[in-house]
Automatic annotation (TrEMBL):
<dbReference type="InterPro" id="IPR009012">
    <property type="entry name" value="GrpE_head"/>
</dbReference>
<feature type="region of interest" description="Disordered">
    <location>
        <begin position="1"/>
        <end position="49"/>
    </location>
</feature>
<keyword id="KW-0143">Chaperone</keyword>
<dbReference type="GO" id="GO:0051082">
    <property type="term" value="F:unfolded protein binding"/>
</dbReference>
<dbReference type="GO" id="GO:0006457">
    <property type="term" value="P:protein folding"/>
</dbReference>
<dbReference type="Pfam" id="PF01025">
    <property type="entry name" value="GrpE"/>
</dbReference>
<comment type="similarity">
    <text>Belongs to the GrpE family.</text>
</comment>
<keyword id="KW-0963">Cytoplasm</keyword>
<dbReference type="InterPro" id="IPR013805">
    <property type="entry name" value="GrpE_CC"/>
</dbReference>
<comment type="function">
    <text>Participates actively in the response to hyperosmotic and heat shock by preventing the aggregation of stress-denatured proteins, in association with DnaK and GrpE. It is the nucleotide exchange factor for DnaK and may function as a thermosensor. Unfolded proteins bind initially to DnaJ; upon interaction with the DnaJ-bound protein, DnaK hydrolyzes its bound ATP, resulting in the formation of a stable complex. GrpE releases ADP from DnaK; ATP binding to DnaK triggers the release of the substrate protein, thus completing the reaction cycle.</text>
</comment>
<protein>
    <recommendedName>
        <fullName>Protein GrpE</fullName>
    </recommendedName>
</protein>
<dbReference type="InterPro" id="IPR000740">
    <property type="entry name" value="GrpE"/>
</dbReference>
<dbReference type="GO" id="GO:0051087">
    <property type="term" value="F:protein-folding chaperone binding"/>
</dbReference>
<dbReference type="GO" id="GO:0042803">
    <property type="term" value="F:protein homodimerization activity"/>
</dbReference>
<feature type="compositionally biased region" description="Polar residues">
    <location>
        <begin position="12"/>
        <end position="25"/>
    </location>
</feature>
<comment type="subunit">
    <text>Homodimer.</text>
</comment>
<keyword id="KW-0346">Stress response</keyword>
Length: 198
């Protein structure tokens, strides 16, 4: 019997045990699983890095566009401010150029006043200069306001005083005009100073 027990022990050692097989096969599955996890982790890490690089390049491109746009806007703002200052400082240039010939006429009239005694000729010369001056101002958009006999309008007239109206139809209307009002291209630039009937 003893030999039989020894033989059984040797046979049991030679034959693979189910526990050993399960352990060995489990280790190989874990190895395969670990390899696929490492591969997917490295793939996702590479994808993350690529996505980060892509976002970084887009951010740099947008930042560059923003800086260029900001610089363009600053240049535009400076240029328009300079143009506005130039426009304000030279706004009267056209009017003044148009008035220079009238000033020349006045200078010639002043010289002729000293040398002549003909009052009628002086009146005619001053009248011609006034007409020229008025036509020049009209060409620049200046228009006189007609106020006498019109109903009082606070948007156009400045009432200096009130007098009793000579007739009932002149009540609340302009009786007399002390200072003429003017429009510049349909905008009131000077209100007419008037006397209103009460």
């Amino acid at each position: 019997m003893e030999n039989k027990d020894i033989l059984d022990e040797q046979a049991s050692m030679d034959t693979p045990q189910p526990d050993n097989l399960a352990t060995e096969s489990g280790d190989s599955d874990d190895a395969v699983t670990a390899t696929s996890e490492e591969t997917s982790e490295s793939t996702s890490a590479e994808g993350f890095i690529a996505e980060t690089n892509k976002i970084g390049s887009e951010l740099a491109e947008l930042k560059d566009k923003y800086l260029r746009l900001y610089a363009d806007f600053e240049n535009f703002r400076r240029r328009t401010a300079k143009e506005k200052l130039d426009l304000i400082s030279n706004a009267n240039e056209g009017v003044l150029k148009a008035l220079i010939p009238v000033v020349d006429d006045f200078e010639r009239a002043m010289q002729s006043i000293e040398n002549t005694n003909d009052v009628a000729a002086l009146k005619e010369g001053v009248s011609l200069i006034y007409t020229k001056l008025f036509k020049t101002l009209e060409s620049k958009g200046l228009k006189p306001m007609t106020s006498k006999g019109e109903p009082f309008n606070a948007d156009l007239h400045e009432s200096v005083t009130q007098f009793p109206a000579p007739s009932d139809d002149l009540k609340g209307k302009v009786i007399d005009e002390i200072e003429k009002g003017y429009y510049l291209n349909d905008k009131v630039i000077r209100f007419a100073k008037v006397i209103v009937g009460s």
